[in-house]
Amino acid sequence: MKKNEMDLLITEAVRDADLRPEEIPQIDLYLDQITSLVADKRREGSERFADRVLTKTMINNYSKDGLLSPIKGKKYSKEHILQMLLVYEMKNTLSIGEIKRILQNVYRLPDYDAEMLERIYLRYLEIKSFERQEAASTVEYFINRCALDTEDEEDFLTLLLGLSAMSSYLKDTVQILLETHYPDLNAERTREEQEKKEESKRLKAEQKAEKQAAKSKESKKEGKETSDAPESGAEEQK
Where are any strands of DSSP class E within 59-200? Predict the structure, then answer.
């Protein structure tokens, strides 16, 4: 793959469109209005991001999991929408439990308010903008540093493996920073994993019981049909 072609592809790969705070109405919005607002903004970016929408189910789950501040009625404030956007941005790397731990720590800060959340989100958008601009040159540096020829199939595969490793290292870096900053996070993760295992066992047991009950019912039905059937000799006498 030629360099100019790769640069164009990388630029397209990171060309997502973010909803800025000033684009969020000051009035409270219903779920349908929020999902439409985010979806419309997504369509301004690359096509690969168009279907990565924020859904009503996702928002309801965020609320149930305690990732959003308490909701009054059926409308959501600008602060709620910013909270949703932060969760949405982190969920590709972090678990819901980890995101909850991070955000609830922020919500408990003495000086926390909607303005603080907006400042955090704006600084994050600035970092994303920088990362978009640097994405192609970062990959180019990696290629030159490792002396890779992207038009050679072996080197191209090596490049993909190297970038995959880099992605994995960055994700692990986020994890270790979280675990160090929030020492109780491992205990929470272990508890969540155990709860998931127990829930999985319970569902499997219920499904097994349902199958056995259905099988037993079917056997009884077949037995009844057999006993109710007239004997061939009696039928001939009639």
Answer: none
pLDDT of residue 193: 66
Distance of alpha carbon 204 from alpha carbon 193, whole angstroms: 17
Separation CA 142–CA 154 (nearest Å): 16
Collect the ranges in the chain with pLDDT lower than 70.
185-195, 224-238
For the chain, the domains span: 3-181, 185-228
Q: Is the dihedral of CA 142, 146, 147, 148 positive or negative?
A: negative
Q: 107-127 burial, b for 16+ CB within 10 Å, e for fewer?
A: eeeeeeeeeebbeebeeebee
Would the CA dihedral through 174, 103, 34, 123 be positive or negative? negative
Question: Are 77 and 113 contacting, i.e. CB atoms less than 8 angstroms apart?
Answer: no
**What is the per-residue pLDDT for 84?**
94
- Tokens 């149930």 belong to which residue? 64
- At CB < 8 A and 24+ separation, what contacts does 183-189 make? 184/101, 185/97, 185/98, 185/101, 188/97, 188/101, 189/95, 189/97, 189/98
Look at residue 229 in the predicted model and tell me its pLDDT. 57
State the angle between helix axes of 31-42 and 56-64 in degrees (0 to 180), rounded to the nearest 10. 120
Q: What is the largest CA-CA distance in the chain?
A: 98
